[in-house]
Amino acid sequence: VLIDLVDTLRCPNPHADSWFVAASDETRGRHITRGTLGCPVCHLRVPIVDGVVCFADAPPVAGVSDRSDEDIMRLAAQLHLIDAPAPILLVGDWSAYTESLLRLLPLTVVVVADAVVASAQDDRVSVLTLPGDVVPLAAGSVRAIAIDAQHATTGLLRESARVLRNVGRLVAPAACVLSETDWRELARDAHVVVAERRQSSSAPVPLRRAPASPLFSA
Ligand SMILES: [Zn+2]
Questions:
Q1: SS3 state of residue 166
Q2: CA–CA dist 59, 189 (Å, integer)
Q3: Is 26 strand, coil or helix?
Q4: pLDDT range class, residue 213, cuts 50, 70, 90
Q5: CB–CB of 169/182 below 8 Å?
Q6: From the CB of residue 119, how many other CB atoms can be counted at a distance below 10 Å?
Q7: Which of 120, 113, 80 is nearest to 98 (CA)?
Q8: How far apart are the first and last CA of the chain?
Q9: Which residues in the chain belong to E strands, given as ranges?
Q10: 215: helix, coil or strand?
C-alpha cells in the first residue's frame, strides 16, 4: 500500500470514522510491503502482506490479463478520466485494466480491490481486499469507481456512493439496480451502466474547481 494512501483508509467497523495508525516492518520506495494497520477506536488490526492491505483473504489471482486499446479507451471515457492524481477504484475483474490505465494516465493513482490479476509493482497502485460489504475508504475520497458483477451488491453500491466525490463516475454491470437517490444514470450498453453520483448536500466534501476539459469525451 502507498504510504500516502494510508490517510484515506478507514476502519470498516461500525463506529465513528477512524483512520489507521500504520506500523511498517518493511517498505519499498513509497510502499509499505509488510506491516500492520491498527484502528485506535476498536483496535482492529489489519495485516499488510506483500504490499496488500488484507481486510479479508485475497481471492485467487488468475495471472496478468491484457485488454485491447479499445476496451481501455472505453473505460477511460466512461469513468470520465482525466490525468489527475485523485484516486480511482477498480474492483474485482476491473483490476485487469490497471496497467493499461496507468500507461494512459501517468499521474493517476489507482486503488485496486479484490484483484483477480497480479497488480503492477508501481508507485501509483495500492491493493487491498474488501471486508465484506464495506469499502474501507474515506467519504468522498475517490473520483471514479468500476465495480464488477460479483461485487455489485446493494451494500457495496451504497458504499461506492459514499466514497465517491460528488458527480464522480461509476461503471457497474448493466444488470445491477442503482438507487435513484444516489445515482443519475448517464448511459448503458449490453454490459455496463454508467452513472454519476448525485450531488449530496450532506457530504462534507470540499468544493474544488473542476478541470477545464476532460481528456476524453464519453
Ligand atoms: Zn475500528
A1: strand
A2: 28
A3: strand
A4: low
A5: no
A6: 19
A7: 120
A8: 31
A9: 21-28, 31-38, 45-49, 52-54, 88-91, 110-113, 125-129, 142-146, 164-173, 183-188, 192-197
A10: coil
Count of other CB atoms within 10 angstroms of residue 169: 23
Contacts of 153 (CB under 8 A, 6+ apart): 133
- Rounded to the nearest whole angstrom, what is the distance from the C-alpha of residue 10 to the centroid of ligand 1? 8
Predicted model pTM: 0.87
19 C-alpha to center of ligand 1: Å? 8
- The whole-angstrom separation of Cα 142 and Cα 8 is 9
Q: How far apart are CA 173 and CA 36, in angstroms?
A: 34
Ligand 1 midpoint to CA 135 (Å): 13
pLDDT confidence of residue 217: 46
pLDDT at 129 over 70: yes
Q: Is the pLDDT of residue 160 over 60?
A: yes
Strand order in the sheet with 21-28: 21-28, 31-38, 45-49, 52-54, 125-129, 110-113, 88-91, 142-146, 164-173, 192-197, 183-188
Residue 131 buriedness (CB in 10 A; 0-12 / 13-18 / 19+): middle
Distance 61 CA to ligand 1 centre (A): 28
* Residue linked to cell 484516486: 87
**pLDDT at 119 (0 to 100):** 72
